[in-house]
Amino acid sequence: MKTFWRILRIFLYTLLIVVAAAVGALVVLTKTESGRDNLAGMISNLASSDERKVTVSGIDGIWSGALRLDHIVVEDRGGPWLVARKVALDWSPLALLTKNFSADRLAAERIELARLPLASNQPAESGTTSLPVSIDVKQVDLPEIALGEALAGSGIAELAAKGFVKAEAAPLSVDTVLKVTRHDGKQGNVDAKLHFAPADNKLDLDLKASEPAGGIIANLLQLPGQPPVEIVVSGTGPLGNWSGIGTFVVDGQIVTQLTGRHQLTDKGHMVEAKGDGDFERFLPEKLKPLFAGKTSFDLAGTATPSGGVDIERAVVESGSVHGTAAGMVDPKGASDLSVELAAKAEPVVLDVGTKAQPVTVAVKNATARAFGDGKAPMVDIGASLVSVAAGGTQLNDLTAAIHSDGFDIQD
Predict the structure, then answer these.
(1) CA–CA gap between residue 158 and residue 170 (Å, rounded)
(2) Are 145 and 114 members of one domain?
């Protein structure tokens, strides 16, 4: 679903730039073909950045309320990744005088999404989320969305998306509904509803997604064999005391069920999460021994205003190990975090080497503690090893200990 939110965001912000540039441009730029081409070049430059190039072409109908763009191309350092063809916006230009972007319909004849954009090399900007204007798009209509092989897994996946978006700038609130379906002979759909109103202390979320074998979700999650997938996530309540539940089903079997809760306390944002599932078959081979059988988890912690995390409890229980963690990690204050991991009936055998140089370690238990002030506290790590085998040599009954006077917990 994240892919489609990115598409809508690209549409909306590019169109806002189109409108803003048009309002500030001379009338001659919108009356002649060469003028409209010059305006398209100006808009492309405004919408582009050091890591993103946006090309807008074929602008028409700016003042009529029926804005049309021949195409929009978005590129990153890896090349083009998104093309929107025959974009249509039926909107009210005069609404901008009251800081409102109002449209009856936003559509594109075809969207071509080759891949997801590359991660930015620039750090994310901090600050509160805000909108320059209120947005009300009563109908989003994308009848043809073509996903490239990097997303579809094999060949090209053809989708369609419909919905609406309404977002108030002040106070911030978002209401949106999105329905995505496949129409290339394969089944699959995503239904999402979101109501987010921080000023009213409200968050409602309802997400349902399902696909048969060989679907897009299984490919993006890199699930072995690309099995059928179902995802259900729902939650409601005030932001200061919000709870939700999620279920992930693979090949008709429940992989995990998760319940979560968020509370706003005088210490910060407290988050609780409980769940269980069978994760072993989805993990890399080297990690599978730690999560043999059914795994359950019970986590509770608080994100503090200073940027630290206070872990009240963290318990992970699988068929092979029992793990716990508790304490505080604070790069700007004092840290004291303890982690313990103990094998159950038999030692946990881990492959920590390579194919060329295999190394196996049988672990009975392990402990770690980070303590001290600042972002580089001292760290002590200890382990009780039943055996270590490498290159035809085996050592038994070992005790390992590592100490660091300054371990950077931020980097």
Answers:
(1) 37
(2) yes
Q: Give the range of the structural domain holding residue 240, as residue numbers without chain letter.
A: 182-260
**What mean pLDDT do residues 158-179 have?**
92
Tell me if 186 sits within 8 A of 160, measured CB to CB. Answer: no
Whether residue 138 is found in the same domain as residue 220: no
- Give a yes or no: residue 371 inside a domain: no
Position with higher pLDDT, 282 vs 336: 336
> Which candidate, 364, 299, 296, places its Cα nearest to that of 326?
299
Is the pLDDT reported for residue 8 higher than 60? Answer: no
Exposure letters 198-216 (e unless 16+ CB within 10 A, then b): eeeeebbbbbebbbeebbb
Q: For residue 16, is it within any domain? A: yes
pTM of this prediction? Answer: 0.76
Q: Based on the fold, state whether residues 5 and 75 are members of the same structural domain.
A: yes
109-132 pLDDT, tens digit per residue, is: 999 999 988 877 765 554 445 677
Q: Is 263 helix (H, G, I), strand (E, B) or coil?
A: strand
Strand runs labelled E in 239-333: 241-250, 253-265, 268-277, 295-303, 309-317, 321-329
Output the pLDDT for position 28.
47
Q: Is residue 137 part of a domain?
A: yes
DSSP symbol at 199: G
